Amino acid sequence: MYYQPQFALVTLHITYFEALIRWNHPERGLVSPAEFLPVAERTRLIIPLSTWVLHEACRQLAVWLARPGGQHLRIAVNISPGYLHNGLLQRDVEAALAAAGLPGNRLELELTESSLLLDPARANELLGPLQAQGVRLALDDFGTGYSSIRHLRDFQVSNLKLDRSFVRQICVDVLDRRLVTALTALGHELGASVVAEGAETMDAVACLREAGCDIVQGYALGRLMPAATATRILQHEGMMIE
Ligand code: C2E
Ligand code: MG
Ligand code: MG
Ligand code: MG
């Protein structure tokens, strides 16, 4: 499990870590999830793998919450369509939270619109009971694929994650800037925080702040890292806050 920080845009403090999986292969090195997740979905290995991800991410967050600089953190976990719709999500989330001793509101599930679109009514049935326990939802890669604004009202999304295709050129492309500004206003109007993915330069971070985004994630501020590195960074933040 690797982790990438998400920063509050105003203070630049870390508010979340997103759990991102890698396969550490003996010959091929770190294999990207884009290569093996589709295979896991086809073979249904996605189920034990997702169960493991939830437990590991919750366990790690509990460690960070107990450390200086970590008390306000949340963990974001990606949920694939096959896993959402097999019906084990609620059982696994409840077990992972209980094993780690975490309240539901420390966990955010990142879903893409395509996994909600598969069967929106069923998705709402599966997610509603978890949301009632405080678990938060993020709409990942928002604005790509078959976006439906309706999802924003039907699913009570806590965080709207704007896809990085809107973010890459934000300082140079006036249309991207207007789009991000407008989508941010839309998210805020519906009670969501807006997260910009893929900020690769400090210029982009500044333009995102101007557009009104709340949270930023990207190589400019932090790449994905093993848990031990994240722990060191938090320790440093804790010292700065005190
Ligand atoms: P995602 O959830 O949209 O995750 C963000 C992806 O953008 C990550 O790719 C991250 O490394 C990358 N990224 C972050 N900042 C930047 C940047 O500034 N520039 C660029 N070019 N890229 C950036 P990654 O780790 O390869 O993950 C790809 C996708 O695989 C994720 O997209 C997510 O959909 C899926 N995934 C990753 N881990 C898991 C997991 O544990 N379970 C499930 N079900 N899916 C996962
Ligand atoms: Mg994600
Ligand atoms: Mg994304
Ligand atoms: Mg993505």
From TrEMBL:
Pfam families: EAL. Residues 1-238 form the EAL domain. It comes from the Bacteria. This is EAL domain-containing protein. It comes from Deinococcus antarcticus. The lineage of its organism: Bacteria, Thermotogati, Deinococcota, Deinococci, Deinococcales.
